Amino acid sequence: MKNEKRFHDQLKSGDFVVTAEYLPKAETEGSAIKNALQALKEVPSAVNVADNPFGVVMSSLAASVILAQSGIEPIYQVVTRDRNRIAIQSDLLGAAALGIRNVLCLSGYHQTLTDNPESANVYDLDSTQLINVLKKMREQGELLNGEKINGAFSIMAGAVANPYLKPVDLSIIRLTQKVEAGAEFIQTHAVFNIDEFQHWFDTITQAGLADKTAIIAGVFPLDSAEEAEFLLNKYTEFQIPARIIERLKSAGDRQAQKKEGLAICVEIINKLKNMNGLRGIHILSGGKEETLPDILSASGLSGKR
């Protein structure tokens, strides 16, 4: 059952939030979104709409609007890799005009890690600067050049953190910069090693950061040992222990491994739920939105808390 309060209000009232991820497809008919809607409607708090994570896909803004029209609160992702500050501010104004109220600020994967490695990147702004832009637009009602915004602009900014970034002092510095810039929630990269995540979370709590922003732990349902090894080798933020990969291999065939991957995901969620001060769970579906209802049900996250 969905929490009837808006995502922003859930955070402000101290609710334990549950968010998930939707990866748009390269389409114009919206059929993929329609097929995913039933699963996405099971998510209690809000759904991230990825912004060209691996190359050219349907507009994140357009997909966010479709979700909103279907009663799902979107978190509109904005990646700075592909647009300069003019285009970004234009998109943010459009998002506000269309009723979007949450934005996740990302720098984005380098284009060589996408399906369009030959494309040029922009990076006119980084993710922390983008959070500052949103704060200026919201609190001062003006664009970067000082031009006044006609009308309300009440978009909340969020950001991402890598709990496995070493040294941990560097992780604290980056997170502090994002929080000071105005990030009201932080979604982490996928957690597979609970002990290391606990150490990181204890460190940021001691630094006072967990009191200043809502920390939401990411989880990821692995399909197979092959997928785990691919993610581990290609993306630095995926830190998957060898014991998990071996557990997947030992499960048997691909279908058995997928079932085991879901079980591992639920086990991690159940451990994270008991972590004092953690404000929520973010399910990184990796395009496997159909798995969301099973994960939510098995982990007890489908109802109000």
Write a structural description.
It is globular, with a radius of gyration of 19 Å. It has 305 residues and is an alpha/beta fold. It has a single domain (7-297), classed as TIM Barrel (Alpha-Beta Barrel), CATH 3.20.20.220. 41% of the residues lie in helices and 14% in strands. The model has no long low-confidence stretch (mean pLDDT 94). It has helices at 7-12, 31-40, 60-69, 85-97, 127-139, 168-181, 194-206, 225-234, 242-251, 254-273, 292-298; strands at residues 17-22, 46-49, 74-79, 102-106, 156-161, 185-190, 214-219, 280-283. The chain starts with 6 loop residues before the first helix and ends in a 7-residue tail after the last helix. The protein is built from eleven helices and eight strands. An eight-stranded parallel beta barrel has the order 1-2-3-4-5-6-7-8, surrounded by four helices.
List the helices and strands and how they pair.
Layout: H1 7-12, E1 17-22, H2 31-40, E2 46-49, H3 60-69, E3 74-79, H4 85-97, E4 102-106, H5 127-139, E5 156-161, H6 168-181, E6 185-190, H7 194-206, E7 214-219, H8 225-234, H9 242-251, H10 254-273, E8 280-283, H11 292-298
Parallel strand pairs: 1-2, 1-8, 2-3, 3-4, 4-5, 5-6, 6-7, 7-8
Helix pairs in contact: 8-9, 9-10, 10-11
